[in-house]
Amino acid sequence: MFDYGQSDSNVITSDRVNGTAVYGLDDRHVGTIDHLVIDKQSGKIGYAVMSFGGFLGLGEEYYPIPWNKLRYDTRLGGYRTDITEEQLRGAPARRDDWYRDRAYEERLHGHYGAPAYWV
Amino acid sequence: MFDYGQSDSNVITSDRVNGTAVYGLDDRHVGTIDHLVIDKQSGKIGYAVMSFGGFLGLGEEYYPIPWNKLRYDTRLGGYRTDITEEQLRGAPARRDDWYRDRAYEERLHGHYGAPAYWV
Known about the structure:
Number of domains of chain A: 1
Oligomer: homodimer
CATH superfamily of chain A: PRC-barrel domain
Structural class of chain A: alpha+beta
CATH architecture of chain A: Roll
Radius of gyration of chain A: 14 Å
Strand content of chain A: 25-35%
């Protein structure tokens, strides 16, 4: 099919984004994107659900991170975030069906200082 | 991890969108989403690359379709598009690396009457 080239490409495909590394402001590898959560109606990406692999002493846990808190960095070949360990530890508790709980989504975006994707 | 529920959920995950059915205005199944193409810098979905599976006599071919030409339809449990067979047949020719050819992207979006995702 299409060869989307290497890491210098300006696009990434949905099947390749899973497993992409995420780095902190200090270039440290902090976690990995497990999958993206897409809002069906607007067609916008809402979240990257990230695995932090015990790096922060949080165990192999998955956390939804507002997509606009990640920026692709061509030099690193992955995403960069300014989210800190403290922010991650202090994230609001979530229900199993957090993705359909707008009040939780508002708390989460407020916590990370991220603009809402659904506006 | 997370159970995103069934087709009544308001979100879909990147690993599930592949293989999602696409219907025409007359509810006919016209094709299938093979993968999404995401603009790294803006984080926006640019295209659904669709397979039309010979349905339109086009052979098993893959076509990039501007993402904003698809709307999720909860009743159908898939995406709906108003793109016609004539539009698809008349789509501008593309290079192998069409996804890094802004002039082609402009022609394609103009052809389908779709607003540019990169603005």
